[in-house]
Amino acid sequence: MRHRSGPAAGAVPPWLASVQRELRAELLHTHISWLLLTRDRVYKVKKPMATDFLDYSTLERRRHFCHEEVRLNSRFAPRLYVGVTTLGQLAEPAVVMRRFVESNRLDHLCDRGELTEAHIGALVRQVVALHAEADSAPTSSPLGSSGLLADQRDQSLGDLAATGVIDPDRIARLESLLRSRFAEVESAVAARHGSGRVREGHGDLHLANIVLYDGAVTMFDGIEFSDELRWLDIANELAFGYADLLAHDRPGLAAELVSAWMTETGDVSALALLRYFASYRATVRAMAAGMVGDAAATQRYVDQATRLATTLPRPQLLITHGVAGSGKSTAARSLAAADPEAATVWLRSDVERKRMFGLAADAHSGSALDAGLYTAAATERTYHRLLEMAEVALRAGWSVVADATFLRRSDRQRFGELAADLGTGFGIVSCTAPAVELRRRVAARTGDASEADLAVLERQLADFVPLSEDEKGLCVGLPGIGWSEPIRDC
To answer: Of 327, 326, 318, which is closest to residue 427 (Cα–Cα)?
Structure first.
């Protein structure tokens, strides 16, 4: 990030100091803004500066981008953004925001161990809603294209090297890894661009730009100054949160982010790009830390970027097995969260069945036993779709936990054959519980993607055939027993 013009980092113009005194405000500054904090308002003033990616050099441009910031961020944070005002005798434009409690930012929640799966789910739903309403970049547009992504990567690496914080050999290794990974995914980048997956998003969606405001997960501070940074593949938007959760040493929540997003979208092709994008995001964080002389953070982010760009170990395909209420989804979710690399995705048959019929995961179809969504033909289509998704994820290097009853041996065999064809590991997570407990769980279940009721459970119990002896040898334990450790009693 090379500056062409702008004030010194600590220089505060006299007019701003005067406004600060009048408002009795606390004054903070970022790379590109001054922030005046009063009891209930924040006034954000853009610094008169120009860099490679923004131009706030004139009063008119600063006014334009203040209005753009309010317009764009009001898409997802209308209660936070009040409008645009002017400050001081020079009528300097400023964005006006309602002040929030800083400790409620998601990065702080994460550091305190208070960030939950529910928060992650709420965030994912907001991001998906933003992308669903956003325009797609035209096929001819350079926004989100492979050429632009390559330029952004090279710019970030060059700026990182210019900080002088990291040994050039380490930067060279990271550059080699990023180029190698990009060569592997470049065709996928182009395909997704052509299919409308490049949207006008937030652009800077790390945890410090998300807050609990009045108890609701709320994104803010999206990019207004650069179309090139704001228009991006939706997987690139997801990647910043994924990388940030890993940087905070929360791989379980990073895995939850991916699985929740897959539940909402079914966009399994994004997995081929996600870790490359996350590596790029970590490189950008390293560059930003290097620019302010934070050597420890720079080193840490370079390490993270290198890990994310490094090829993963051989993936595994796990399938669940058991009747309704036996704990399959709980086990599958736990297995995905237990992967220390956060490179395991949880795929649910109940969710994909609903998606095939145009229903949301939590919608109820009203289908009777063996009817509607639950005919033999619909079930066959569901397993076929689950198999297709598993293959895409495995080919992208991700491990998969396929969550379905898998009561038919033929279904289990098909997934085992896929694992054999791709040379991945394969295992079965068989879940059981006493019949009285199964009935209690199914009767009490609400708000779940599964529509299995007591009639379905009784049918499954009557038709249940245990695993064969050779299949029992494929059974794996849950976290705490071992990620892929065979257990004696399946």
So the answer is: 318
